[in-house]
Structure formats: structure tokens, C-alpha cells
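Anyone? Bumping this.
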Amino acid sequence: MVISHALGARIKRREDPRLITGRAIYVDDLNFAGMVHVAIVRSPHAHATIRSIDTTAARRAPGVVAVWTGEDVKARCGPLPVGPRIKEMKAPKRFPLVIDGVVRHVGDPVAAVVATTMDAARDASDLVEVDYEPLPSVQDPEAALEPGAPILHQDLGTNVCFRMTYGGGNVEEAFAGADVVVKTRIVQQRLIPAAMETRGVVAQYKGGELTVWTSTQIPHVVKTTLAETVRLPEHEIHVIAPEVGGGFGSKLDVYGEEGLVAALALALGRPVKWIESRRENFIATIHGRGQIDYVELAAHHDGTVAGLRVRAIADLGAYSQLLTPGVPTNTGLMCCGCYRIPNAHAEVIGVFTNRTPTDAYRGAGRPEATFLIERAMDLLAAELKMDPVEVRRKNFIPPAAFPYKTPTGAVYDSGNYERALDKALERADYRALRDEQAKLRKQGRYLGIGIATYVEITGLGAVAGLSGGNWESATVRVEPTGKVTVLTGTSPHGQGEETTFAQIVSDRLGVPVEDVVVLHGDTRAVPHGVGTFGSRTTPVGGSAVYVAAEKVKDKAVQIAAHLLEAAPADISTDGARFTVRGSPERSVEFKDVARMAYKAYKLPAGMEPGLDVTHFFVPKERVFPFGTHLCVVEVDPDTGEVTFRRYIAVDDCGNILNPLLVAGQIHGGIVQGLAQAIYEGVTYDDEGQLLTGTFAEYVVPQATDVPAFELDHTVTPSPHNPLGAKGVGEAGTIGATPAVVNAILDALAPFGVKDLQMPITPRRVWEALEGNSASR
Amino acid sequence: MKVEGTYTLPASRQKVWELLNDPKVLAKATPGIKQLDPLGGDTYKATIEVGVGPVKGTYAGQVSIADKVPLERMTLKVEGGGKPGTIRATGELRLEEQDGKTIVAYTGDAHITGLIASVGHRLIGGVTKQMVGEFFKALENELKS
Amino acid sequence: MIPDRFEYVAPSSVAEAVGLLQRYGAEAKVLAGGHSLIPLMKLRLASPRYLVDINRIRGLAQLQEDDGTLGVGALTRHADLETSELIRSRYPLLADAARVIADPLVRNMGTLAGSLAHADPAGDWGAAMLAVRAQVVATGPRRDRTIPIDEFFVDTFTTTLGPDEIVSEIRVPKPSPRSGGAYLKVERKVGDFAIAAVGTYVVLDEKGACRQVGIGLCNVGATSLRAKRAEETLRGRVPDEKAIADAARAASEECDPASDLRGPAEYKRDLVRVLIGRALRRAVQRAKGGA
């Protein structure tokens, strides 16, 4: 693909001025006359039966308009559907408030208090008396599998939501014939997505239309779901995602509060607002990760991998949310990584526990897959006393083998894994780093070099085992003055598509980027859409824009040819004008073509008026970005502290539409990935109480906690979309976690430390070294 | 949340046992107990106010004494709920007399739900220690008076 | 995250503030930087009925030396200490500590006096002030009281300050010749409460032995702690590696940490040992004129 003046250019995000000057409008900025506010009473117990709820005092409190319990909700609201199902999956539908009398995690909603001010609602929520009978709870997903474990959903009779297997070849034979087998058990700790803006919903029913403003990644899915939940015809529902302050997957769900606030607006006839508090965000918005992976890797003496066996136990939490089962199944699909592993088998088990539900969080199953195979490759290298680089090199899928089908069923589109690795090694000066490491060790200083080579999956729903909804829509409308309006079905919330999609249109039509506006997140403006998640926006949504713009251009050329009395094939354009080739004096301006498209008195015979094309892009296949991340750390064996020395990322996301935005995505992604490695982790006590309940205890890194990133790229275009692009929103997160953990374990190799549980906080390093005389 | 330790009280086992079984003393010695009303047997309705500096919470619940083996051991149970969540604590006290003094060995386990559990975690350990210390100090004062 | 109802009052003099405290007693809390109090209020863990905002009172933000002491006002912010040339050149322990308290946003608002009055065992200033043997000036309805820092902390969130008193100033003794200090902290991320932190202050005599030693410990007990035995171990001795190791071991034994998410008590004890060793070496180096 030709990178033009617009595409591939370092154009600053057009979104930023309004964001950084405080002029963006978020849900909480919306205020309407007569609006009432909701505070939600939530369970303090992980598992309990509600004996009774006494709302008398709350109803009498000043300003209170209504108090709803589960029974009130049931009378006015249907259940929330479970998302797309995978086969033989067992999961209940849910109501926006608990109605079957059992709470299943701390934070499960039990009552809603509506009052004229937010303060009054909050005050009155303390007056709702809920009498609970605590039940035994189960926190650990492995314990939940044991016979006799407390069952969350009695009607299902089991805590197992689903079991899936992936694989091919003959794993038993491969292990029997292997020279070495390395094994590990990995705990993918739960993470809190912690978007800067918490969730929030405003709903208003007026003039026969229900309008719902919600902080979501998927407004169209919310609209369709609400039709079922609040029992209104879908065409009477209008959903708007205004400015959305981050999601990372946590807003890729239809939540009970969306149904509840809509139902309240319908019942009360007043605008209703609910804004999630940060504490609620920690207990009532989905968590990410939460997986226990048993990994076995079999290999020959020369480092060739013969087989892989994985057993992944996913902690689903108390309920199945929109895409919950799609997360661990992604791990099963992608567990072979960049390597030609002829025999592989992965079993994935989804288990209910008395904790906040888990769902897609930046990477959604691919970070877990990459982590387990990258840790296993390092363990293999250590076992064989080989350089981790060489073990990887030995097993890479070679460039000539693409498209490549893994035994677990993924079909990789294109790749050159060694090229990205080499570029990272060169940039890091790998040999010099190893020399420095040896030198420092003699001085009692512990440098570690960690490598992760990843491949991941983007461009569809990115949800293995689920089907449907893989398209994205775009409308490119040239207005009569020649300015362009783009409507996209994606719903960006920080990704910057107002900039990149304008670049695509500018590239195709030749109009200046400033003449293109990109609208999104409004179901009345954008007829249909799927949303923004799974790094799908550019490869799928961007491709839809690309094709729509091409079709607009074709029509404009036909109109121009007709006006100039020439054949369409003879028309050339620079965007501003259409010219007959060889006759520069015969030309017409773009804006005149646009005007004529609507005046429509001089159009080619049979042509419909207008210059407005909607395209639904359906990708043929998924696309697989890849890369190498290399991290250098120093570990202080006395305090356990880890200090970053360098961080090098070479990512291949196919063609790059805007290097600034790609860098931004990778920076943010790496921060979240290294956060999992050494900072962040949800901790519950054995009764299901969240101990990491505020930012004082749940350690999200800030700018000062992360190294400067050295970024580079290789470019291997995808054959599956016209942009040749692969998604880049999650790549950083996927590469970073294993790179950092491998670096720390490389630093601690002289102490014989082979594995450490994430997050590798100072105390965990100290505990691993304690009693080791070499450290004292 | 578990605590254990020993405390030596300058009195005979008989005297200490009597103190521990006197609801008035219990109400006075147990930090935060504002009111203790007998409900029959060894169970009392209690209003408990736990305060550490500006951090205060009021809990309504029950205090009961169980598993009594006179002069030897007893279990103290506290259960309550309030705005910041619920508290369920049990403490086992074992008495042993040595040279006219009584050594009380205690093991306790507290389950805390809600806000305090998730926000106050870093302080709960220290505060619990502090409250156990206050309890025994108050018993000691009671012995002196 | 909405606090309980409260009444806000903003007095314009210390006398007026004290008058309000007298009237409202335990129902009132003084608001200085607010970065400890406001989060507790938003969670409704603390619900004072009256908030007495002292930020409008003039003349409380001083940071100057006189009469043999450094005076730090009730409204002197962490950032004032962090950026002061006087602090940087003459009070290395304070300069070290000011740099590692929370993050810049908190440092712009939070105050040394407020931090001490709040008496969070994880507050860095408590340990630092113990090491330098500061005094707390309390202003109440009668005349000012000067409270030695050793008598100030009673328990977690609890001080000897009366309900009608405010901390009007902190007085830090001027550094002696041949003195040096250091403050070291291990935290999970920048801005976190310490896993453990230590402040050390030494004054050497002409022969290079420790004439005076101050060691304060942060977040390893119910209050900020003075490591008394460690100080005694070192006093009068030349601070060689052996002496420093003995003091470090003593401090790790006399601290009283609780196990929590930051780590088990044994880890925190060991961290105290490691940090005391490092901080003493740095303090001694500074006492000898090094950086």
C-alpha cells in the first residue's frame, strides 16, 4: 500500500485539545431539569441469602423518590441476556438487581435508592436494612471444582460453566519421545481495569423515545439488549456513548445498571442518573485475567519443541458476563505462540467463584497464552542451558510457512518473527548486555534481561469459540459543500479514530484531513455498529471506512467524467479537482462534483443522487500482529526492589496509519502489561472480601514508575484487509508481562529462583531469596 | 485476621475468672462497647463503637460467652453490623495460674466485611493488637480498683 | 465517594480556630492539606461534624531558622520543604524525606504539621521528626505548649494533642557541626505508603565517634517509632561497619511491624535492618562532608 500525505503521517490526535482543556462531555457532565439520582446498595457478603430487605427508613429519608429491590425490578424489567454462548455452556441470565434472593459476590446489587440529589441518595442508601444469612463461599477456582464445594448457582448443580479443548497432533507420543519436559503452574492474578472514568448512565424517556447515555464501548449492543431488558421496541431506544474515559474491556459489557437506570427513567417519568463510585468500580465492574495455567513443554536436546500441554482453569467470578467465556478460550487457541509446535493440547475450564465477574481486559486471553508459552520457553532454555534467544529462534514458524495453522486451530495470516527478534536484539546490543550482566554479577549486582516474542490475534470480535458480529460498518458522506462526514460503528474511547479514520478518507478522496469529521457512539447517527474492542477498530472499522471511501470516489469520478464529457477511466484527481488526463484545462472541482451529486440535474443516466456510501466490512480472516519485547531490570536482592533499566519493543502491526497513535497505544499497553508483572494484583481474603479496595492498596503505576520505551517496528502487511493493517491496541500489554517477568527471573537465576508469582512485588522477591545464603 | 499472645494479670485465677464473667466488667474492658443488655444465658445485646482517631464506626450486635470450662477457658464471641460492614470475632481465652498470677493465653480470629476490610486493611492488624492490649489493661485496672 | 454532611468553617486567625475547636470539641477536625482527612471523609470512615479550615490564616507558612531551631509552620507544605534551598543545603534528612512523600500533587497540598497531627504510622514525617528530635508547638486556649516529639504520638491516629489544640509550628533543632542525616524508603510504587522507611541522624565528635544518634522508623509499628536500642548501640562508637550492623540489627528487633499486603512482618524487620544500614552509612558520609 502506498503511504500518502495523509496515511502513515505523524498527525496529532484531533481529540486531544478538547480532552486536555476539559471541554469533553462525559456522562456525568449531563444534567437535565428534574433529574433524579441513583445510589445502589451492594452486598458486603461474598455469598449470602437475603432474608429480608427493609426499605421503610430509606423511603422516608429527605429527597427520596423511590427505593427499588429485586422484586420491583422484576416487575418492570426483564433479565440481562448472557452473551454469545459457547457449546454446552451453563450460565444463568441475571436481573439488574438480585432477585433470586442470593448474593454471590461482594458488590452484588441488592437495592436502588433514587433521590433528588446524589447526596440524598447516598445518605438514604445507608438506611436500607438488608438481613443476610451468610452462606459458605468459594474463592479459589480450583477449590470450586472440588466435590462438596459451595455451589453458586443451585439450579445448574455445578460450578463448571464450560469445558473446551483445543489441540492436534499426538501429544502423548510427543511427551513420551521427548528428551526433556519442563513444567510450571502459573497464576494469572486478577486485575482491576481501572479506567480513569468509572461507569455511568443517564436515561430519559421523552416523546416516546428512551435515550440512554452510557459510558460504553458498544452502544449498539447496549441498544439491542435494552430492548429485551426494558421491553421497549428497539426503534424507540437511542443509545449514546458520549466521551468515554477509557475502558480496557471493562465497558465491553451490558451491565445491570444500564437496564436499571433505563427502567427507572421509564417508571418515574424523570431523567435518571447513576455514576459509579470508584469503590463500586473495584467491586461491581468486571475484573480481568484470573486464570490458573498448568503448562508442560516437551522438547529435544537441541531445543526443538515436541509438544505442549496446557490446562487452564478460569476464574469466571459469580456470573458469565458478555464475553466471559471468550477470554480463557482465547488462551487455548493461542497457546502455541510464535512456535511450530506439532503436538499441542489445551483444556480450558471456566469455573464460577464468589467474586466479581471477570471478562475481557486488554488482551483478553492472549496475554495469558503468551505468558505461559514465553515462560515455558525460558524454563526450557534454562533446563537445556541454552540462550533464551536461541531456543526461540530454533522453534519460530518460518516466514515461508504462512498462512500457518496451529494445532489449536488458529490460522496466522503473515509473519516474520525472527526479523522482529533480530531488530530488538540489535537495538538492545544483546551481547553487550550479557557481558555487562556477567560483570555486574561479580560485583554482587543482579541485572536481568528478559525476552518475549509474541503473536496475537486481532481484527474480529477476537473471541474464540463465539460466532457472529464480526463485521463493522462505516458511512462516508460527502456533503454538498465537499466536506466529509464519516460515521463509524466502532465506538472509540481513547483510541483516536477521529484522527486515523479522517486520514484514511483524506488518503482515498484527496480532501484535506481537516475537511473530514468522524462521528461515533450514537445509535441515531450511526445506523449500525459493533464497537471498539479486541484491537479491531483499525483492521475492521478502518477497512469499512476505506472501502466506503473508495466507493464514494468511484461515484465522484463517474459524476466528474459525466460533467467533463469524458470516460471515467480518463479522469485523474488530486482531491481538489478532477481533470481529464492530457487536457489540464478540462477540470472540475471536487466541491462542484459534490454539489452536483445532490442538485442531481446532470448525473449519468440511472445514477441515484447523493454522494454517500455505507459499507459493512466483513473480514475474511483474523489478523495476527507480532513482535519482540526486551526488558532489562536490576534487582536489589536485599530489599527486593526491581528497577527498570531499559525497555525495547519491536512491534509489527502491518501497515502503520499514524506512527504517533501507534506509539501511544504501545506505550499504554506496555504500562498495563508491566503493571501486571510487578505492580497490580487483586487480593481477596478467604471470605471473598476485596482487600485491595482503593488505589492506596491496588497499585496502579504512574509515569514515574515505568521506564522510557524504545520503540521500533517491522512491517509485515496483512493480506486480509485493504489497509494491510493489524490491530495494535493490546500488543503492548501482551508482550510486556512475560518480558518483565523473564527479566526478573533472569536476574535471580544465580539464586536458583525459577518461578515467581505475579505481581513480583519487593516482598515476593525477598521471600524467594530469604534463607538463600548467597543473598545475605 | 488472627491474633494470639499472652497477658499476665496480677490476680488469682478465681478472681480473673469472676471478672471475665461479669458483664459490667466486660462492658467496661472491651474497647468500644457502649452498651451491653442481657438477652439471657451468656448472650448480650451490644452497641459497639470502634474508633481510631477520626475513623469511627458504630456496630449493633451481640456479645456472647461460650464453651465455658470454669477457671480454665472460655470463648468470647462478638458479632455486629454497621454502616462500614460487619464484624464477626471470636477469642478463646485460656487461664493458667502461676505464683499467684494468672497467665491468660488468647487466640483470636476476626472476620471483617465491607469497607473496613477493603480500605482499612493496612491498619487492621495494628488496631486489633491495640484493642487487645486495651482490653487486658482495662482488666488489670479493674483488678487494682 | 460522597462524605457525610458537615459544616465548613474558615477562621482567619489561630485564636479564632482554637475558639471553634473549644466550641465543637471532638466533633471538629482541622483541615490543612486535607490529603489524609478528605479521603477518609469521602469513604465515610471519618465523619466530623465540623471542618475547621485553617488555610485562610495568615502567617502559618513559615520555614526559617532562628533561636537555634528551624521553624516549620502549620501551613508549610511538603513541596515547600522539598524545594527550599535552606532545607536542601542544611537538612539532608528532611530534604530526602520531602522528596519521597506521596506524589507531587499531594506534596503541593499536604503539610508537615498536618501529617504529624494525623499520626498515621505510615506518615514519613513522624519517623523523620523522631530522628531529628523535633518539638511540636500546640496552640490552645491557654498558652502554647511545646511537646517533644517523643511524647507526641500515642497510638495509631492518636496524639497527645487536646481536642481544643492545633499544631501551630514544628521546631527542628539546627544541625550541629559534623552532623548528617538521611531518609530512605522502600515503597511498592512512587506515592505509596512505605513498606518500611527509616530516618537517621548522626553527630560525630572530633574523634569521629557518634556523639548523638537519632533513628526514626516508619510504618513498622502502631505509631512512628524511635529505635532507642539502635541509637544506644551506636552512641559513643565510631560508626564502622560493625557498629552500623549492630545498630541495624537492634532496630530490626525493636520495631513492631504487622503483616499486611505490603509484606510479612519478618520482611519488614529485615527491610528495617537493610535500610538502617544504608541510611546510617549515608548519614555518616554526610557528617564527614560528603554528599
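Late reply, but here is one note on the structure posted above: Chain B touches chain C through 21 residues (CB under 8 Å).
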